[in-house]
Amino acid sequence: MNCNVGGIDRTLRIVVGIVLLLIGLLTPVGPVWQAVALIIAAVALITAFVRFCPANAMLGINTCSDAEKKTKG
To answer: Does a structural domain hold residue 1?
Structure first.
């Protein structure tokens, strides 16, 4: 898997993931909305840490710079 999530995109995914995780765990919403928030949070956090997003790959989007591609192990 090539890096296609980098820089600001990665930071935004982490922030959105944490916010949705907190919303899903701490706010009194219905069980369906809680599950939706937790699933989206998990996807955002996983794609941020793995630095690969299948949706970005299908759409041809790559926010990873050349320097970030070289440092990814």
So the answer is: no
User: Domain of 31?
Assistant: 7-71
User: Is residue 57 a part of any domain in this protein?
Assistant: yes
The model's pLDDT over 2-56, given as tens digits with 9 standing for 90+, comes to 888 989 999 999 999 999 999 999 999 999 999 999 999 999 999 999 999 999 9
3-class secondary structure per residue, 2-68: CCCCCHHHHHHHHHHHHHHHHHHHHCCCCHHHHHHHHHHHHHHHHHHHHCCCHHHHHHCCCCCCHHH
Q: For residue 2, is it within any domain?
A: no
Global pTM value:
0.84
